[in-house]
Amino acid sequence: PKEIFLKDYKLPYYYFDTVDLKFSLGEEKTFVSSKISVIPRVEGSSAPLVLNGQDLNLVSAKVNEKELKDGDYLLDSRHLTLPSPPSSVFTLEIVTEIYPQKNTSLEGLYKSSGNFCTQCEAEGFRKITYYQDRPDIMARYTCRIEADKALYPVLLSNGNLVEQGDLEDDRHYALWEDPFKKPCYLFALVAGKLESRDDSFITRSGRKVSLRIWTPSQDLPKTGHAMYALKAAMKWDEDVFGLEYDLDLFNIVAVPDFNMGAMENKSLNIFNSKLVLASPETATDADYAAILGVIGHEYFHNWTGNRVTCRDWFQLSLKEGLTVFRDQEFSSDMGSRTVKRISDVSKLRIYQYPQDAGPMAHPVRPHSYIKMDNFYTVTVYEKGAEVVRMYKTLLGSQGFRKGMDLYFQRHDGQAVTCEDFFAAMRDANDAEFSNFLLWYSQAGTPMVKVTSSYNAEAHTFSLKFCQEVPPTPGQPVKEPMFIPVSVGLLDSTGKDIPLSSVHHEGTLQSIAKDGQPVYSTVLRVTKKEEEFVFADVHERPIPSLLRGFSAPIRLESDLADSDLFFLLAHDSDEFNRWEAGQVLARKLMLTLVADFRQKKPLVLDPKFVHGLGSILRDPSLDKEFIAKAITLPGEGEIMDMMDVADPDAVYAVRVFIRKQIAQELKGDLISTVENNRSSDVYVFNHDNMARRALKNTALVYLAALDDPECTALAMHEYQTAANMTEQFAALAAIAQNPTKTREEVLADFYSKWQHNSLVVNKWFALQATSDIPGNVENVRNLLNHPAFDLRNPNKVYSLIGGFCRSPVNFHTKDGSGYKFLGEVVVQLDKINPQVASRMVSAFSRWRRYDKTRQNLAKAQLEMIMSTNGLSENVFEIASKSLA
Ligand code: B3K
Ligand code: ZN
């Protein structure tokens, strides 16, 4: 396999101006003809034209209408090369034959539930026809689709429908024309038996846009929430960024077989049906929230990704980091900002920090890849979004907006780089960003240590920062980063102290603005060691550091537990209130893990339970905030902080603390459940979701006690639940304990929902992630369950992906969990390399465990590596994991 490097980027020798595609869809094979007008970048150039192609059968090729003969071109398994094409504008016509029915990779043109659909990003277009499959080739497309009329009554592609009609042999056609230039990864085609929910949106300039969400007819009633989300997203982008939709039609199609969540093809978004279909009976609040976020995300790509796209795939975060940031802000504005921030930061900690500390660590803009699909990562997406957020933290909302405006003004219709985005932010604000660009090139999570001291005579308060960026593969030595640290100071009553000025490197900088007091300020930490001294601080303050999580770092402070309890009770920055509780919980868990390993009896600090109790009882707090604040950090987060990760110890300690909390707060938890039952119909809004979240969190705590009273309560909630959010939470609560009740309720749930595959996926995932002893065998058996299908990514993510998230069973000391995953990866790789590669990633942190586990996991990676015909996708992850 060949590694591709960012430093080797070269401009293309040829541009494509227009592309006319014709698809003749058939049951055995499909013919694709493409007619491209090619423009040499340099007139008179004699460079060869190299087209990418994979799994294609070349039928014919013509240049300026002249059929090419054998010696006129070179063909290998991955390319079609014209060694000496005409030196000025010419027409290239290519016909290929492809077999979508056999395509299980779900990349290129394939079939899902009887319908044709496409997925081209990143490099799937080359499985449709020979093309320069790279995002800096932007062309205007037309697409004519021809198919059997009865089987495929609906024919869709990008842009506007310009013509349609009937043909001989019960076939029909549709001709689509996209007026916007686009890279081929945004091309899409759908043909099938679908129906649409129709609606419309009037843009702020008064244009009417038709909105259509397509599904098989029986699913149409479940598309209401997606339509609501789409309209909300369209309005939000106008209000917040002044960005309007640019065509008269916007289509969304839901398909059940899809590798990722969704795809932003120009005006024809294709979605995994899990992120479109929802009804209160079948979808949870988490599903509703995910649909809102992803519908928003794909819609926002119309500007950040489609109108302005990436020069090359190394720049992926240019569109993904920015668009994730935009969808996070959208969801915040539609619900609770604090709760959304807490969820996003948790996701970063649970998934991105481990990646950034492991063998697959890579910068937000990677330097190289073997298979681009392996770089659609939490680093590119979520850390990338944090990088965008830092611009906003540094520039303020208005400054950020000015930067965005300039970015579009300069680059609309272009394929650009991360530096272009940086330059727009900087230039629009005359900003000084020192070494900020290192966020794009240096991997690893910076570790920042803070020490504080108060000088009672001088009335000054000092914060000393010391940063370290850990080594990562290929980057042994790092430079200090530019870290914006948002800070506030609390007085002894818990109120924010007005900040007047700060001494830094010999200058006194004013913080107060126009005589107005300021209660939070952003310190710009840029050196390995640096001190900031606040002036006019008249009592020893308690610092609230990294408010709102202003940078994606690990922060270690010298705050005492009493300070953290104080922040938990008083910080005006709600994110940091939650964070103070998490820091306390992490410390406590690590101490207990050490005790457990030394076989000491476990004792829970009563102050901690007391702190959680006061949060639980505080009527002034948002209920979802309470739910988050009483939830312990996950096993992964704690293992991440240990020298040698010990899954058994961490699991035992977490179970111990949870039971202890449940025991001591039992009365409060029971009333929390009773007082937060649904009284009315399901409503998707923050207050209702918050109530359900709190109730469910309390119920899961209680059921952990496994006493008759709590089990009866959970059963009652299960039987009376009027929506999936509460029904599933009650099921999960009961399923914690390896009892007969567990088996009965799981069976009951399956028989209720066996005809809804999205709900069945939840049922698979719940069992797969379970911590009950000896679960490997159960999961193995579920592979043979009639509802399971290795070809459907959602099923694989639920059962196999779910299993890999189970701290105890995946890491079972006899290696049976590793062996199971190894076998599945090999089988899966033959069907769908992208999905197999996501699964094999679960092995990547094998070095974090003890010797016994290391050897067992390593043996599986070696077994995978020795498999014949391994895909590049799996090869890249497995080989880098072993390196
Ligand atoms: N851009 C797509 C992801 C495509 C994945 C290709 N392997 C979805 C998104 O981020 O919006
Ligand atoms: Zn995206």
UniProtKB/TrEMBL annotation:
CDD domains: M1_APN
Domain of life: Eukaryota
Domain Peptidase M1 alanyl aminopeptidase C-terminal, residue spans: 561-883
Keywords: Aminopeptidase, Hydrolase, Metal-binding, Metalloprotease, Protease, Zinc
The keyword rRNA processing is annotated on this UniProt entry: no
Domain Aminopeptidase N-like N-terminal: 23-186
Family annotation (Pfam families): DUF3458, DUF3458_C, Peptidase_M1, Peptidase_M1_N
InterPro entries: Aminopeptidase_N-like_N (IPR045357), Aminopeptidase_N-like_N_sf (IPR042097), PepN_Ig-like_sf (IPR038438), Peptidase_M1 (IPR001930), Peptidase_M1_dom (IPR014782), Peptidase_M1_pepN (IPR012779), Peptidase_M1_pepN_C (IPR024601), Peptidase_M1_pepN_C_sf (IPR037144)
Domain Peptidase M1 membrane alanine aminopeptidase: 227-436
Residues of the Peptidase M1 alanyl aminopeptidase Ig-like fold domain: 444-557
Cofactor: Zn(2+)
Family the UniProt entry places it in: Belongs to the peptidase M1 family.
Stated name of the protein: Puromycin-sensitive aminopeptidase-like
Organism: Rhodamnia argentea
Origin organism lineage: Eukaryota, Viridiplantae, Streptophyta, Embryophyta, Tracheophyta
